[in-house]
Specification:
single chain; about 425 residues; alpha/beta; Rossmann fold; 434 Repressor (Amino-terminal Domain); 3 domains; 20 helices; about 10% strand; flat; Signal_recog_particle_SRP54_M; nucleotide-binding; Signal recognition particle protein
Length: about 425
Amino acid sequence: MAFDNLTNRLQDTFRNMTGKGKLSEKNITDALSEIRISLLEADVSLDVINELLEHTRSEALGMKVTRDVEPSQMFVKIVNDKLIEILGEEKSELNFNQKPGILMMVGLQGSGKTTTIAKIANKLNKEGKKVLLVAADLARPAAIEQLKILGTQIGVEVFAQENSTPVEVVKNALAHGKDFDLILIDTAGRLQIDDALMQQLVDIQALTKPDEILLSVDAMSGQDVIHVANGFKEKLNITGLVATKFDGDSRGGSILSVRYMTQVPVKFVGVGEGIEELDEFYPDRTASRILGMGDIVSLVEKAQEKMDIEASERSAERMMKGQFTLDDMLIQLQQVSKMGPLSGLMKMMPGANQLAGQIDDADASSTMKKTEAMILSMTPEERNDPKIIRSTRKRRIAEGSGTSTTDVNRLLSQYEKMQKQMKMLSRFMGK
C-alpha cells in the first residue's frame, strides 16, 4: 500500500525516542530531521513537510507531559493529529442534491478514470440506487467498449452513442436518464491537460450542473499530480479526489501533497484492480496507518463485509467449549481467505507493518489452498475425529489433495496444537 516505506521509517524514528525520560530540543530536532528525510523519500512536497515539521516542533517543545504517558507517545500524537488535519479531518461523503443526481469523472488518460467510475457505480448500485453510466469519452476508441463491459459486469446500464460529440451524448443521456436516481458521466482524458479538453469539460459542466465532479489521480505519479489537480481545478468545480493505484506505490506522499495544496477532499482510494476494490477515504485511519498504528476499524469492517458471520459464530461457540474440529479449522481458513491478501490484513494491525512486508502472499495463499484441499479430502468422520487418521488414511488424503504424507502430518500436528490451545482457553473462560 501507499506509504509503506514512510511508515517503516517513522516507526524506526519513534522507536529511537522510546524510553527517554523527557524530550529535549536535541531529541526533537533529531526526530524531525529523520521525519523530513522520510517524507522527502515518500514524495511529499516541501510545503507540506515544512507545515508538518514546524507545527510538530512548536507543539513538542511546549507540551506538558503527563506521568502515565511517555514523551515519545505524546510526540506521535502530535504528528498524528497534524497528519489528520492535512488529510482532511473527516471523511467526505458524496453529496447529491438533485434528482437524478449527477456525477462527472475527470482525469488524465491512464489515471484509472473509467475503471474508477464503474467501481463507484457498483458501490451505489449495491446501495439500492438506480444508476446510469454515460460513455462520454469519445477520444479513446476502447473507452466506450470498456465501460460497456464493466456495466454488464456490475449490472448497470450504460448509455453510449458513437458518431456524436461528448456534449450531445451527455445531453441525450440526461433525457434518457430522467427516471434514474443517479447519472455518472465518464469524460474524455488526455495524455496532458490542453485547452480543447478543458473546454469540452467546461461545456459538460455547464450543461449538467453536476452535484459532484471527481478528479481521478494516480497515486504513483509523484509531484506531477499537484500540477494536474490545479490545472483541472482552475476550470472546473472539483468536489473530490479519487486516488487510484493506492495499493501499488510504497511512497504515496503525493496524496498528502495534493490534498494539502488543493484543499480538495480525497473521497475514495483504489486499492486493487477488482471492481470491488474501492475504499472510502478516512483521514484518521490513513494517518494511523502511516504512523504504523494499524487500522483496526477497517479490519473489523472488512471482516463484517466478507465473512459468513453465522458460520463464524457457530464455530466460535464450539471452540469456546473446547470442541475444535478440522471442520472448524477449515471454516476459519475460508473466512480469512475471503478478506484478501494476508499482508494487507497485517498492515491493519498495530505495529505489524514491517512484519507484513516479510509475508509472501503467493506462498501464504498456496499454503492455505493446500490445507483446504487436505481437509476436504477427509471423510466427515476423519474431520470430526482426526485421531483415527493412520498411515493408510494419510496416504489416501495426500493422493486426493495432491500433497504428500509429510504435508498431512504437518497439518495434523498444527491442528493438535490449536486444539490444545482451544481446550486451555475454554477451561480459562469457564472459570
